[in-house]
Amino acid sequence: MLNAPSQRAPAIGTAIALALLVSMPRPAHAQSAIDWQLGDFAGQHGQRVALTVKALVDGHACTMQVDTGLDDAVAWHGDPAPARKPVDVAVEFAGVRVTVPTPADHARQLADCARGAVVGSLGNAFFDGGTLAIDLKTSHIRYVPGGRLAARLDAQPMFYARWGATGGHPLVEMRKSGALRGYALLDTGNAAVAFAATGKPQWDAATGGAPLQATATVTAFTASSSSRTLACFAAPSAGVLQAGTWVLAAPLVTYCPSPDVAPPLKLEGVVGLRSFGEAVVSIDYVSGRWLVEKAH
């Protein structure tokens, strides 16, 4: 997680090894409806704070977040304790099926999905055998196996950075006023974020040196991250921000100072779904390309 306010819960990948058995996806893949979780963000009410879908967890329809800020295939929300003899829990969505070793007590809790709580997240390792397309206008999501953007001249380059045992993170070029600044994480797990700076230098560059305190143009707010409450700030960008060639639809810059956040790679920040308005965002893990286009 790269210092952006988030509704996601901490992963347990370090506590329990994710020995994943991935089945071959089915040939045909229908669109799945997105169920947006709403909440407050940066002083604004009723924001889309999490992109969730219905996935099958051991045959039960459960609500799970789609989170490209997560490298693993699956991470359960809450804090399940490690177990010496975990049980395998099957998770299926959009034709992809994985099994996740899970503490038995937590697996029993997962069977109760009727309450509608978000029980976990689907990360990059779940989808990186194909192409993921998110239609923000119609609130639908679609996964297709294999690369789909290699021949698209309007697609942008994407670096799928792998620095863990499984999965990785999609990184895209970040520009300010046309000049390349570096790379940013393309993060569906931060639905309410337009652009979140990863450090003070990046905040200064994006906002023109806005102060880290509440002013007429800077909003101070709090956000939860990994069971902690962070003091955060939001300010308008001082210049045109672009992810690839796409001009961010809502150029609000956020920053949550946190001394223990140290990404393995220097990044300019995190690009969230708020950046794309009502567009369709496609991530082609296989071809290393991504695309933003207007919804039909």
Model description:
- The protein is mainly beta and 296 residues long.
- The chain folds into 2 domains: 32-144, Cathepsin D, subunit A, domain 1 (Beta Barrel), CATH 2.40.70; 148-294, Acid Proteases (Cathepsin D, subunit A, domain 1), CATH 2.40.70.10.
- Helix content is 6%, strand content 44%.
- It contains 3 helices and 22 strands.
- The strands form 2 sheets. The protein has a 15-stranded mixed beta sheet that branches.
- Residues 1-28 have low confidence and may be disordered.
- In the CATH hierarchy, the third-tier topology of the largest domain is known as Cathepsin D, subunit A, domain 1
Number of domain modules: 2
Global morphology: globular
> What letter string, H or E per element, gives the SSE order?
EEEEEEEHEHEEEEEEHEEEEEEEE
Instruction: Look at the structure and give the CATH class of the largest domain.
Output: Mainly Beta
Biggest sheet features: 15 strands, mixed
**What is the helix content?**
under 10%
CATH H-tier superfamily of the largest domain: Acid Proteases
Helical segment tally? 3
Low-confidence segments, ≥5 residues, pLDDT <50? 1-28
Rg over CA atoms? 18 Å
Round the mean pLDDT to the nearest integer and report it: 85
Bin the strand percentage.
35-45%
Secondary structure layout plus pairing:
Blueprint: E1 32-33, E2 35-41, E3 44-57, E4 60-66, E5 74-76, E6 87-93, E7 96-102, H1 104-110, E8 118-122, H2 124-127, E9 130-135, E10 140-145, E11 156-161, E12 169-176, E13 179-186, E14 195-197, H3 200-207, E15 219-225, E16 228-236, E17 241-243, E18 246-247, E19 252-255, E20 269-271, E21 279-284, E22 289-294
Parallel strand pairs: 4-8, 13-20, 14-19
Antiparallel strand pairs: 1-10, 2-3, 3-4, 3-6, 5-8, 6-7, 9-10, 9-21, 11-12, 11-22, 12-13, 12-17, 14-20, 15-16, 16-19, 17-18, 21-22
